Amino acid sequence: MAGVKTNSTAGALPRFLTPLLVLFILTLGALTLAITTGSVHISNQELWQVITGGGEPLHRTLVFELRLPRALSAFAAGGLLAVAGALMQVLLRNPLADPYVLGLSGGAAVGALLAMLSGLSAAMVSGSAFIGAMISAVTVFGLAHGTGSWTPTRLLLTGVVIASGWGAAITFMLAVSPSDQLPGMLYWLMGDLAYARSPWMALTVLAIISVLMLPLGRSLNVLARGQMQASALGVSVRPLEWTIYISASLLTAFAVTTAGSIGFVGLIVPHMLRLVLGNDQRLILPAAALAGGALLTLADTLARTLIAPEQLPAGVITALIGVPSFLYLLHRSR
């Protein structure tokens, strides 16, 4: 029996490490492409010189002050959205759930647009977006819980209603906004990384929550099969659901604060990974962080180079990728 257990454990390790290693290599490739591509092309050799402390001053400025922070911000936002989407799909036991389904994006958008209308700085816009997202999370959870217990269906319906309310508020603000402020507001709503600030806070949150979720992988696998089965197998269902909800809310809030409202990443990436890797959350969550980050990094690179010198919102590229991908997944599942 001991030998069988050892062989099983030894066989599981490469099964987890191999896909993660492949995704890690793809992520490095996406980041390298984002850093070297632009109006001034930087070769891989020149990039290595910059990384090792040499290179031309122009290249150092482009890499460390412009392209690298933006690429890392895109990676962080994509990873945050993908992990949040995977967690929301487990929590609601609904494959169509995504990070924005509970109105978090709407709350963040209202907070950001109010800051823009008030003429506040970019840092204040990001802070207002985060506050709006967390207000939305607390509101949805409070209304769904009420005086009794909440269910995934009740939580989902409450989130849809709150999201509709935020949508009406956003439409009103756009209608009464000065014309000179509309372009920036619309770009933020479509997801724009042109003014992304330091990525380190978002990367830190992504790393911490991803690490904290790994020991809960087995419990998440059981919860995905239903509350009754999870309870029967000894899982503390309610604390686990609270942990998932709070974690997904924080992930989404930081993603929206970093990059605006970017759709489809949190919906498509977990789906694709499950088709390829199975439904083991111990593998899906770290894989989602890497795959979501790489996808949004590539999308942002396309957004700023496709019609250069003009730039597109990254959300436009993710939608162009996400819509046909989602239709394909629906056709395949049928």
Your description of this structure?
The structure is a single chain. With 334 residues, the chain is mostly helical. The protein has one domain: ABC transporter involved in vitamin B12 uptake, BtuC. 78% of the residues lie in helices and 0% in strands. The chain contains 14 helices and no strands. The chain has helices at 2-36, 44-51, 57-92, 104-117, 122-145, 152-176, 182-190, 200-213, 217-223, 227-232, 237-259, 265-277, 281-305, 314-333. α12 crosses α14 (314-333). The longest helix is centred in the first third of the chain and has 36 residues, at 57-92. Residues 1-11 have low confidence and may be disordered.
Descriptive terms for the model:
ABC transporter involved in vitamin B12 uptake, BtuC; mainly alpha; 78% helix; 334 residues; single chain; disordered N terminus
Largest sheet: none
Average of pLDDT: 83
CATH class categorisation: Mainly Alpha
What is the fourth-level CATH superfamily? ABC transporter involved in vitamin B12 uptake, BtuC
The CATH architecture name reads Orthogonal Bundle
Q: How many angstroms does the end-to-end distance come to?
A: 42 Å
Helix and strand string, N-terminal first? HHHHHHHHHHHHHH
Query: Any idea how many domains?
Result: 1
Q: Structural class, please?
A: mainly alpha
Please tally the helical runs, counting DSSP H or I stretches of 4 or more residues.
Answer: 14
In terms of DSSP E residues, the strand content is under 5%
